[in-house]
Amino acid sequence: QVQLVESGGGMVQPGGSLRLSCAASGFTFSSYYMGWVRQGPGKGLERISSINPGGGSATNVDSLKGRFTISRDNARNILYLQMNLKPDDTARYYCARSKAYGFDYWGNGALVTVSS
């Protein structure tokens, strides 16, 4: 069965960095677009970044360009999100498999807290 397991969350000070990882299994990872979605406290879901199957093309929401970078390792079936963080980035971050114009499988999420 499809499994997506995020890791790498935690607490960091403003201006700090974290790298989230998402280990994928149960499907041919290299055949799918993948993405990251987040939900901050009291906020709705926000699609923040996507990457094509080969890893050569990525899109980010405009507000995060220059601070967040999505990448993937198809040999190891891992999706990454490198983040340079501000307090407003506090959220639970979900790895998700893309399907059509949405997502069909999600991980349980990794909590990121940005606070001094």
Structural class: mainly beta
Low-confidence stretches: none
- Note the main sheet: 7 strands, mixed
Instruction: Give the amount of beta strand, in percent.
Output: over 45%
Number of helices: 0
| Mean pLDDT across all amino acids | 95
Radius of gyration: 13 Å
The outline comes out as globular
* End-to-end CA span: 40 Å
Number of strands: 11
Helix content: under 10%
Elements, N to C (H/E): EEEEEEEEEEE
Describe this structure in words.
There is one protein chain. By secondary structure, the protein is an all-beta fold. Helices cover 0% and strands 56% of the residues. The model has no long low-confidence stretch (mean pLDDT 95).
SSE diagram, text form:
Elements (H helix, E strand, L loop, with lengths): L2 E5 L2 E3 L4 E9 L8 E6 L5 E7 L6 E3 L7 E6 L4 E7 L6 E9 L2 E5 L3 E5 L2
Parallel strand pairs: 2-11
Antiparallel strand pairs: 1-3, 3-8, 4-5, 4-9, 5-6, 7-8, 9-10, 9-11
